[in-house]
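Thread: "does anyone have the structure for this chain?"

Original post by V.I.:
We have the sequence but no experimental structure in hand. Need at least a predicted one for the grant figures.
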Amino acid sequence: MRQRSLKRELNQWIIFTALAFVLVGGAIAGRVAFNQARELQDHTLLEIAKLIRAGKLNESRVLNHDINIETIIINQLGKKQHVPVIPLDIKDGFHSMELDGDNWRVFITTQPDTQRRFSVAQQTRLRDEIALSSSLAVFLPLILLVAIMSLIIHFIIKRQFHSLSLLAKAIDHQDGTNPQALKEKNIPIEIMPFVNSINSLLSRVRLTMQKQQRFIADAAHELRTPITSLSLQLENLEKAKTENDRSQRQQNLKLSITRLATLVSQLLDLARLQNGNTKKREIVSLNQVVCEAIASLYPLAETSNINLGVIRQDENISVFDQQGQISQLVYNAIDNAIHYSPPAGQVDVSLYKEAGKAVFMVEDTGIGIPENELQQVMQPFYRVNESNQPGNGLGLAISQEIAQHLGGVITLQNRQSGGLIYRYEQALAD
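Reply from O.Q.:
Generated one for you, tokens below.
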């Protein structure tokens, strides 16, 4: 398929438009010039007739002796002209008539003193040739000007599009691993929005690549420790001397493998979310999602002697979801609250509507998060130094990615009485 050329189309449209206007304007100007030339020739006939009436051209008249009307012919230079026979009963004034097989323009006049009648005649063909020459004299320069203008327009367009070629070369020469913003020097105003959009895109690409590079480096670092631990545990398992010792070491190995599998699963979840693959959204009941998450985590809360319950829940709260992401967000929030609450602690869940939004809130009685780290905990692999709970620092990062995908907002706030308030807001589904 042939690709469009903006430069070629601009040239064509401008040239065709100019040519069309010139043809129309030239035709009008030519017609006007043609009519004016004929009027000028009529005026010439009239002026000659005035001279005849005044008796100033008697000596130069051309006489037709067969009739009583003496005829003066406006002739082409160097060309002998036949004198036409003019009817005797013709009135004074202008007449267009056919005489002796030719078309003529004739002006009849009578001398007041002698009552002699004269005609000043000119062949129509000669008149038209003169008028056509006048029209071409007007029209041909316009055609020449269009040709010159077309060349100038082509040169100007080619020169203006040169800046786009330079931009394309600048992009081609970019290092794919570290794209830089395009220079905005000497860029036409009309192209600036395009350049700004490209620079904005390159900036987002650069940030995404840096984010992925950090993610890969952090993931490699996080995986190195459990893999090294597994290697050591396998060596220890081979050195077991008793069956009980072997069984205990096998159990520790299984726990390590489970933690590694969880880490890998969370890494895949985070990578999938950061990749930005969008699926079709569906409407889900947030009430049902919260109830299912609490039911799933209630045994864990009982084991840890945590009082888990719902203190507020409005009815019929529906939101948009993608592939069960909202379930993962709710589960992570309640699970973190249980893990970071001390024995005999309390986790309160609230779900309600506020200003056209669904609000999901989890409050715990744990140690909270230092104020200067409330934003940092949203970063992958970040763990609070004061926490002694096992984890890999991916739970909140995954929830943050989910919130961004679903158009929600997560807010963390420490309670005055101790503990953390986890608040998630998302627009209600229509």
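V.I.: this helps a lot. Residues 59-68 have pLDDT under 50 and may be disordered.
O.Q.: and Helices lie at 6-53, 124-160, 162-172, 192-238, 243-275, 286-303, 325-339, 395-406.
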